[in-house]
Specification:
The chain is α/β, with parallel strands linked by helices. It has two domains: 187 residues, Medium-chain alcohol dehydrogenases, catalytic domain (Quinone Oxidoreductase, Chain A, domain 1, Alpha-Beta Complex); 139 residues, NAD(P)-binding Rossmann-like Domain (Rossmann fold, 3-Layer(aba) Sandwich), CATH 3.40.50.720. It has twelve helices and 18 strands. The strands form three sheets. Strands 3, 5, 6, 9, 10, 17 and 18 form a seven-stranded mixed beta sheet that branches. Strands 13-12-11-14-15-16 form a six-stranded parallel beta sheet, with helices on both faces. Helix 5 packs parallel to helix 6.
Length: 368
């Protein structure tokens, strides 16, 4: 079928919206009609050429939500008409990692997904010049996409697609990191570095877990205001004295939990240092640039601080995303406040410009 999609033709250049061909789903795959897709920093990171695993001639977009249109052979957990959220982090439930209960990083399709291909090693996307590669297994900057069944979370159809598409990446990464990965304790202190979508999600998650003190660091005064609305108790613009300010707010010891959501290694270092001596837990959520390394003074770890990563915030997509959608429908998660702009696919490059200008939190591409 012919669809409209936003193609990354070359790095550090605008995406090109054009007609492409999308083949029917094969065994274990599903055709999804996209209704909404958030424009995430990860898309910009790959488009810039900074991502060491990035590739051109691909259809970007991964923060999607839509409706199941067609099923490939053997698909059992979904049916036509289901509302779904796209998952760049699948959950097969059968691989060693899924069964371990120790990680959300599923192994089932990881190798081919990293190459921009479907599980069978081929692509469903093409044009006259030849095949196009998939992006993060999703390629959601398109009217339709074909995805593996295990990379789709079936959710309550009453939810607004514009809001729940944020749960495909940014919002869930922050929320899950606080709720399920770090397991923030009631009455604890939390410091969040970065008040974009991921950081704000961590703020909301920490508040839901009952944190007593939530400190947010971000140079944008507008985002700090959003952080306060989301539940932050203390905010400041940061800089070289950020760690000192957090220590002052926490009696000189540091925060029980810190979250880094900027992708800047210098800030990651601050997040480690700002964690409480003795038991502070730092969760890194941002993605650093090509070749960058994080340096940690060993004394910080010897004196009890711990550091962990949190891809997708540690969320198991098909398990946790439907739970978050239910929380949204119950009014516990105000996702709508984070949707700053709504626009069509032809405005995709404008959405990137707004992101770089920190104009709002999330732009959402809407499909009819």
């Amino acid at each position: 079928m012919k669809i409209r999609a936003a193609v990354l033709e070359k790095f550090d250049a605008p995406l090109v919206v054009q007609d492409v061909e999308l083949a029917a789903p094969e065994a274990g795959e599903v055709l999804v009609r996209l209704k909404a897709c958030g424009v995430c920093h990860t898309d910009a990171y790959t488009a810039s050429g900074t991502d060491p695993s990035g590739y051109c001639n691909s259809v970007l977009g991964h923060e999607g939500a839509g409706i199941v249109e067609e099923l490939g052979e053997g698909v059992q957990s979904l049916k036509r008409g289901d509302s779904v959220v796209t998952l760049f982090s699948p959950e097969c439930g059968e691989c060693l990692h899924c069964k371990s209960g120790k990680t959300n990083i599923c192994l089932a399709i990881r190798e081919q997904q990293g190459k921009g291909l479907m599980p069978d090693g081929t692509s469903r996307l093409s044009r006259s010049k030849g095949p196009l590669r998939h992006f993060m297994g999703t390629s959601a900057f398109a009217e339709y996409t074909v995805m593996p069944e295990i990379a789709l979370a079936r959710v309550n159809p009453e939810a607004d697609f514009d809001a729940i598409c944020l749960l495909a990446c940014g919002a869930t990464t922050g929320l899950a990191a606080a709720i399920w990965k770090a397991e923030v304790e009631e009455g604890s202190s939390v410091a969040v570095f970065g008040a974009g979508m991921v950081g704000l999600g961590a703020v909301v998650g920490a508040k839901l877990r009952g944190a007593e003190r939530i400190i947010v660091v971000d140079p944008s005064l507008k985002r700090l205001e959003l952080a306060r609305e989301a539940g932050a108790t203390h905010t400041f613009p940061g800089g070289p004295d950020a760690v000192g300010e957090i220590l002052e707010l926490t009696g000189g010891f540091g925060a029980d939990y810190t979250f880094e959501a900027t992708g800047k290694v210098a800030v990651m270092g601050q997040a480690v240092e700002a964690a409480r001596m003795g038991w502070g837990l730092c969760t890194l959520l941002g993605v650093a640039g090509r070749g960058e390394k994080l340096e940690i003074v060993p004394r910080l770890l010897i004196t009890g601080r711990r550091v962990q990563g949190g891809s997708f915030g540690g969320a198991r997509g098909r398990t946790h995303v439907p739970e978050l959608v239910e929380m949204y429908l119950r009014g516990e998660l105000d996702l709508d406040r984070f949707v700053s702009h709504r626009m069509g696919l032809d405005d995709i490059n404008l959405a990137f410009l707004k992101m770089h200008a920190q104009d709002g939190v999330r732009s959402v591409i809407q499909f009819s």
